[in-house]
Amino acid sequence: MAALGSVQEGEEEIATCQEESGVLEGPMVSLSEWQGWGTDSPLPATVVAAIKEMMDLEREFGDKMKFGGVGSKIKGNLKVIDDKKKRSVYAKLSDPEQKLQYFTAQQVACRLVGSRGYLCQKCWLPKEDCMCSRIVPCNLLHGIRFWLYMHPKDFLRQNNTGKLLWQLFGNQAATMCVFGIPEQEEIMWDAFKSAGKDTIWLLYPNVNSSPKSVGDINLDRSFSEENKEKPLNFVLLDGTWSNSSAMYRRLKERWVTIWGEEDLPCVSLSSLGASVMHKLRPQPAWDRTCTAAAAAGLLSELDLHEEFRGLGLDKQADAIEDSLDILLDALTARRRRMGRSITRKERHNNCI
């Protein structure tokens, strides 16, 4: 089964420090800027509050924040002050939900402000390495919708592969939902409640009492244009393997609250080869792969079923694989230009 893990912490191209890139140098993040990164959701209130906190810190100390490294972390003179303030606020929060939302907002805010003018909004690569012109968009079958449930530490990561799905298929067919952003999570759950629990499947290693495969999905339905309002919803956990456990628990808690059932419907893939991205970022075990490769594997297995025959899922799976090749090429070229290794040390070889 594919675990939808992304890279381990630190396995990302290191952004050069954005010198003198203070938060006050640009306007507050607008709705259009927020949505330009790959979402149709409203601008999160918690993220706006986090950016305002950074602006206030700059005003108070008369200094500019600098950003750089993995996750566009704050650098320079204000780093220690900012870190102490955030730790103090976090420690005073007693509600776990408030803690999660605060953590997520801080992660997303730093990435938004620190990536301004540096990353391409569509492919999340440095602008000099933009690969957008090589990606060929296509339509996903009307009766299928992907939900990219993304950990905030994967938001705007250059080697994230979940972003490829909405680059290819558009936001309505592959929708990003960041773990701990309430505006996006409500959009996702409202869609689930409207479509019905029988249309929702989480692509995740089987942890239920009754393991499921693609063959167990109810396909007794029409996949015509008329039925696109109630598609099959496939949730992909877009984050490191360790982070995906927390995301799974959050999904399960909400599932129990809404439908009163303990088992969140999880589906595993019967066969899955190593993704091309394995060359740059090996996964911790043979049955875990990157998010986009798992999505391609799901479409390929669905294509084997008579109900999907001739509907083009094989071509849509190929489009994902092609986009992974393009991303790998772009990241490899960047590493070579920076004089960095283009291979990663294998981990947990005993699992293979």
From TrEMBL:
GO terms for molecular function: tRNA-uridine aminocarboxypropyltransferase activity. The keyword DNA repair does not apply. The keyword Transferase applies. Keywords: S-adenosyl-L-methionine, Transferase, tRNA processing. It catalyses: a uridine in tRNA + S-adenosyl-L-methionine = a 3-[(3S)-3-amino-3-carboxypropyl]uridine in tRNA + S-methyl-5'-thioadenosine + H(+). One of its GO terms (biological process) is tRNA processing. InterPro entries: DTW, DTWD2/TAPT. Residues 116-340 form the DTW domain. Its EC number is 2.5.1.25. It is an enzyme of class 2 (transferase). It comes from the Eukaryota. This is tRNA-uridine aminocarboxypropyltransferase.
